Amino acid sequence: MPSHDAASQKDAHAQDAQSSNPQPRTEQELSQAFRDLARGEQTAAALEANLTSLESKLDELLASFMSKAGEDPQATNGADRKEGGGTGAQGGKNMADK
Which parts of the chain are coiled coil (predicted)? Predict the structure, then answer.
């Protein structure tokens, strides 16, 4: 029986040595790593395409808001703001200065 126990310990030691080596040891593991890498690249490409689409939609929304704001220039130029440099009722002065 002691020889069986020694063989078990030897197998366990060999498995520990293999698990501590992170590099692929067989062609099968290497090919699986390449498949995983290819899948990751496909996922990254799909995410990039989705982000590009989202960016163009956001640009369209921004252009829409900008064109609406351009129809009423008084709404965005800050002329009526008390702390601004406009020519509003207070002459562009801050109310705290009074």
Answer: 37-64
Question: What pLDDT score was predicted for residue 36?
Answer: 98
Residue 70: the pLDDT is 82
Predicted pLDDT at 25: 79
Cβ–Cβ < 8 Å for 85, 92: yes
- CA Rg, the chain, in Å? 34
Tokens in use for 67? 């064109």
Contact between 79 and 87 (Cβ < 8 Å): yes
Helix or strand or coil: residue 56? helix
Q: Do the beta carbons of residue 88 and residue 81 sit within 8 Å?
A: yes
| Angstrom distance (rounded) from CA 37 to CA 31 | 10
The predicted-structure confidence for 26-76, as pLDDT tens digits, reads as follows: 999 999 999 999 999 999 999 999 999 999 999 999 999 999 888 755 555
Contact at 8 Å (CB) between 79 and 88? yes
